[in-house]
Description:
The protein is an alpha+beta fold. The protein has a four-stranded mixed sheet with strand order 1-2-3-4. It has helices spanning 15-35, 92-105, 128-145, 151-191; strands at residues 40-44, 56-60, 69-76, 114-121. It is globular, with a radius of gyration of 19 Å. Residues 195-206 have low confidence and may be disordered.
Amino acid sequence: MVDPEGFHYTLCKGAHVTSRHDALVHAIAAMLKAAYPGQVLIEQLGCFGDETLKRADVVLMRMAMGGRLIGYVAVACPLARSYISAAQDRGGAAARRTQQKVGKYAHLVAAEDSFTALVFESCGFMSAEVQQLITDTAEAYAEEHAESGDPRDVKACRDQFIADWQIRLSVVLQRGNAVAVRSRTSRDCAAAGRHGCRHHTEFCFE
């Protein structure tokens, strides 16, 4: 236990939380690049018009379809007070955070572009939008990389891609959580002179 409620360090603002977000952005970009080489950008300005300097986390150019898919990556903690009510339903925290981000940014993108909020719950759940992106990307990947055009080979390739990237993204998320806890407990322990941590931390970890 690292704080009275058990989750403070996975949502408290700081570089450790930013690193988790950035790791998820790069992982999602790597997934997209596997199916859409040369069409994926990260941390792009100008996607939300002139009204905000907000960077788009991931941009898929979608050359064959026209327009861009503009992705915003976020992590919601279902145990936080602002989400715990919604979290009574499976994936409720992710769904609520998705609604918030869509309401804030979707109307700012160009008419030919599409906005999607890619939200993870810190406990591991992926929003419907994340799961749909994985599925769509898997289908595009399988069309080009299946052993043959046989529907069974295409399906096997698609299913393997989905399974692989669900695991990879889950690992990235949980590594980010671990880094968040360790970095904050280490810092608090150092500040407390290694004689018992102040504030939220109850134990020092070597």
